[in-house]
């Protein structure tokens, strides 16, 4: 799907509010500038995400939270001589090795306190299996048994009648992208709120854009995020 400029017809074609969900991905201290695994200019999206949380546009709000045990398999420090951002083969796929980040119950794993998390209906913690990384809010990455176990999020949304999800947060080319792709695979109309995401590296943006288009995911720009009466 092309870079979305459907803002003129989107309000008419979208489902009722109670069928819409906002998924806010991994807005955690370690992914902010100054954190262990900072996203480029991640602080810039805090205000916009708070506006989305309190907009009344979504009947359901989900937050995801990376929640790793110490020594997680995705940490470069768990692999001897490897450095952060090296890649290894893991369970037949390529695994990026990250700096230690979002270790459960540490200050870096905390959801950013500038956002009002009391507005969230549910917080999905992911990445707690020490053997498997977990980018998507819907499913873990491929594990040693050749499957991607569910977090239960798809069922949670389906049971509440949700048909459309809008995805934002950090990091654009990793956890937000994977969450959006899995949302589309699970049958939800999926909107990627591009201005309310930031990547680890802006160099990845073209590839991210291509994957979203390939997956039939609407890339929503700033204009189409304005209220209908704006």
UniProtKB/TrEMBL annotation:
Residues 21-221 form the Isochorismatase-like domain. SUPFAM superfamilies: Isochorismatase-like hydrolases. It holds the Pfam family Isochorismatase. Its EC number is 3.5.1.19. Keywords: Hydrolase, Metal-binding, Pyridine nucleotide biosynthesis. Pathway: Cofactor biosynthesis; nicotinate biosynthesis; nicotinate from nicotinamide: step 1/1. PANTHER family: LD05707P, PYRAZINAMIDASE/NICOTINAMIDASE. Belongs to the isochorismatase family. This is nicotinamidase. It comes from Kushneria pakistanensis. The lineage of its organism: Bacteria, Pseudomonadati, Pseudomonadota, Gammaproteobacteria, Oceanospirillales.
């Amino acid at each position: 799907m092309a870079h979305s400029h459907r803002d003129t017809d989107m309000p008419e074609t979208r489902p009722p509010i109670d069928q819409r969900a906002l998924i806010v991905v991994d807005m955690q201290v370690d992914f902010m500038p100054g954190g262990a695994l900072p996203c480029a200019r991640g602080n810039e999206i805090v205000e916009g995400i708070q506006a989305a949380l309190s907009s009344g546009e979504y009947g359901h709000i989900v937050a995801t939270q990376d929640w790793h045990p110490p020594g997680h398999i995705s940490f470069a420090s768990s692999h001897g001589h490897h450095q952060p951002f090296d890649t290894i083969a893991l369970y037949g796929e390529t695994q990026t090795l990250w700096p230690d980040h979002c270790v459960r119950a540490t200050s870096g794993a905390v959801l950013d306190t500038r956002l009002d998390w009391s507005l969230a209906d549910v917080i999905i913690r992911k990445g707690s299996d020490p053997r498997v990384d977990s980018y998507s809010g819907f499913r873990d990455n491929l594990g040693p048994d050749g499957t991607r176990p569910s977090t239960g999020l798809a069922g949670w949304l389906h049971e509440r009648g949700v048909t459309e999800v809008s995805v934002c947060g950090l990091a654009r080319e990793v956890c937000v992208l994977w969450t959006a792709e899995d949302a589309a695979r699970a049958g939800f109309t999926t909107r990627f709120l591009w201005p309310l995401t930031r990547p680890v590296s802006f160099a990845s943006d073209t590839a991210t854009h291509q994957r979203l288009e390939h997956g039939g995911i609407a890339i929503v720009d700033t204009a189409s995020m304005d209220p209908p009466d704006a």
